[in-house]
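hi support,

uploading two proteins for the ticket. first:
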Amino acid sequence: MLTDRLPSGLEVAAIVRQAQVAGDFAAILRRGDPDRGAILLMVSSRGSHIACLERVLGASGDYGWQRTGPADSASSTEIREFLAKRARFDEDSWAVELDIADAERFIAETISAG
């Protein structure tokens, strides 16, 4: 059964605030539709790209996070091209950059929490 989810703008604001409270860096790279836009998280640690996470609708009707996009240690050019392509494909999408001290733990917790 399809479950309710937070509006995209509110979820992005919560993610940014969570990172800031933890002393990490967060910036909104692209603002999308405040209610229904897709969300991409570009996760890095000390400036080195670790992963890209996307909120997706699963087969069960629940939203969760999965890895997508450029591989670990991708160059800034590859990341920029990926984001530009996604923006052309989905004008309503959000992109958030996170530079987190313990990025792998953040990714594991985010994916498991859905």
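and the second one:
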Amino acid sequence: MNCLFFVTVLALTISNIEGAVARFEVEIGNYARFDFGPEMIIIKRTTSVTEEAQYLFAGPNQDGSWTTNGIDKIPSNAHLYWNGTIVFKSITKDDLGSYEMPLEPQRMHLAKTMIDIVLKGQ
């Protein structure tokens, strides 16, 4: 009886977990805009450009460069605004990948949100 109760509780717990992954479809060369939400002034991404995570910080003098260590610059035409909106003037293949918000508050039983930027139709 105890074993059956444990399995039932475990199944209910797993089935109540909501997905935290979104898919954002884009076309190469096109303008793209995504709102990560207020206070999301740092965006972390993983792309084919490098195996290391890359970061973009909101700021008044951005040149669109991402960084892995605060020193290197990975070129991009992205701009992150203080309201958590990222704008790509022209999407490139290097912009395709997974995007996360390191400052997103922890939510009990939910994973952090991840946005996958993918080519439209794939």
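thanks. also noticed: The two ends are 47 Å apart (CA to CA).
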